Model the fold of this input.
Amino acid sequence: MVDFDIVIPAFGRQDLLEEAIASVVAQTHPHWRLWVIDDASEPPLALGRFAHDARIRLFRLTQNYGPAYARNYGAMLGNAPYLAFLDSDDLWQPEKLQCALAIFKQSDYLWLHSNEIWLRDGKIAKQKPHHRKEGGQFLVRALERCLISPSAVVLRRSFFLASGGFCPAFRWCEDYELWLRLLLEAPIAYTDLPLVTKRAGNWPQLSQAREIDRFRVLALHRIWRLLRHKLPREWQLALLEQAIQKCGYLIRGALKYANPRLRRYQAWLSLFNTLRTRAMRDSSCAVSR
Done:
């Protein structure tokens, strides 16, 4: 019986991909399948020394759609009760899946994540206090930055499918957008064991893209548009405050670098200020009644 379907979305970085696959093969829990989704890399990716492992399959997309689409594509290929993701430049500790299964068997949690080791150019990088991981339903704290790593997450398949998965329209911050939606639905379990090694070096990484704040604002707007009825009043105000702050970052950057998106960012700021004023007025009316 297969307990876990694992999805690695990959674009280039052949050597790093093989190291990521090796960390899956080294798992102490053996009942898994791995789906590697090549997001139209040139040249095409290969499984290398793992080509003959029947548990591992490689699928190549005909064009580059981004990690959200690739993860969703891979998730639909299997039917195991649990679903895990691993970025191609990250590594798992051998007990990653065994630990996740134990937590699920002992609790009703729908998803979980773990602590991480950060490596930059092969050296351990210290995490700052604002990067601190935690469990529970910490949506307000998660509004500022992405506090959950795709490589650290394991979910019950039914929970992931019910959410609709990652939003393919988001080339960046697709994880940030999904985690906010999931935190609205259910608390996340957490283990302080560093079961993931996140690596950074002289290769391109989406987390370093200049688009980050822009897509985080778009994610916050999407949450507001689709799910504000699920947000308690204080969470609504926290979301709008965070969106306003990020719009401020974008405007200052656009002014500094003559970014043609300046007017768009100013319009976003006006929108969120209007929504905040309306939410505060509605809150005041509710208290007076």
Notes: The two ends are 57 Å apart (CA to CA). The longest strand covers residues 189-200. The chain has a mean pLDDT of 94. Residues 262-288 form the longest helix (27 residues).
